[in-house]
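Task 17 of the worksheet. Students: predict the tertiary structure of the chain below and write it out as structure tokens. Keep your answer in the requested format; marks are given for formatting as well as content.
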Amino acid sequence: MDGDKLYGLGASDMKGGIACLLDALESIGDTKGLVVLFDVDEEYQFKGMRKFVSEYDLHPKLAVFPEPGLAIRNGHRGLIEIYFQTVGKTGHAARPSLGRNAIMGTYQVIEHLMDELDKWTHEDLGSTSCNVAFLRGGVNRGYDERGELVVSGKDSGNNIPDICEAVLDIRTAKQEPMAGDIIQMLNDFLVNQDYRMHCCSIRHNYGAFYVPKTRLGVVEKIFQEIVGSIVYPANLGEWGFGEAKILQQKLADVDCVYLGPGPTGMGHKPDEFVSINEMKKARDIFYRLIQEYCCQP
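Model answer:
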């Protein structure tokens, strides 16, 4: 602890928010319709939230995720992750016209996809983006005992590569396109260029998350009374994917917001801290929200 700053791994992301919630609950008294969920794996496979929505059929009016950033975060872009292989035709490097270079084909199809994704934009969430998270190509040497692709190494410069695998991380600004649409775009382009798509798989397939501000009047009122003004993040498109979308996808009528203490961008870093003053404000916001939604006669 140093002045107003409380240091520690996870202080802002998101032990500070959990502490605020627990402190609010300790003094709230009897409630009705309140669910407090602590789940696991909220940044990778989302196993906890996916398990929760598959087993429980609850219909809350409001869901609050105490992520850092003392603001009302009402949206973020979606998350689609796709793995695929481009299959070309090998041959001698001295005669490239007689083969089909799978690495070049993958490069071309990704460029084509990025041009197509420019069509999907949102006023608050910005543009749809595509990150090439993994790329590997060479001459196909078959598959090992685990079913993993074996590709020739860096000594294969005399050959035209006939296989290339890629992982694309796509952040969508709208509900569309979904993974199936993107795979269709990739496949159509590759076939048209005399390539073939192989071993395509989908890891994540979530559209954008967004709650219009017009639905958050109660949250805005309480936030303004405690903080002094209504604050929304300047650029929702810069935020990563979160569990609110998974809950909203199961329950279309629930309003979700991210709201908690701590500076943004400090999570997972050395000298992570949370402001004690912000924690007090977040605690009071949680207390008031629980009163409003779960303590009415």
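Marker's comment: The mean pLDDT is 93. The chain has two domains: 5-76+210-294, 79-206.
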